[in-house]
Amino acid sequence: MDQPLFVYTTFPDVQTARRIAGLLVAEKLCACLNLLPGMHALYRHDGAVAEDTEVAAIVKTRAALADAVEARIRDAHPYDTPVFFRIDVTTADAATRAWLMAETGAT
Length: 107
Prior knowledge:
The protein is an alpha+beta fold and 107 residues long. It has helices at residues 14-26, 66-76, 94-103, and strands spanning 4-11, 32-45, 48-62, 85-88. Strands 2-3-1-4 form a 4-stranded antiparallel beta sheet.
């Protein structure tokens, strides 16, 4: 049985995040994205410490679509290497699970 899954990723700005979120929802690769603007990122890049403001996103999808979600984001994303963390959802109430499965085309 397919399981709900969260995919965490980031975008450089709200416009990019909304554009890619729209693609994922329209293509039924996810049921919903939560966009969290104003995230302050401090990170290492090319041997130096850098910082930026990003938009974090939680993609609500199912495990069977994880590779397709990441590929679609990668195709549309301006970063050379967008970050992806898959977070297993161990529990979801029946109504939420049914909604997620229905909106992503699960049978």
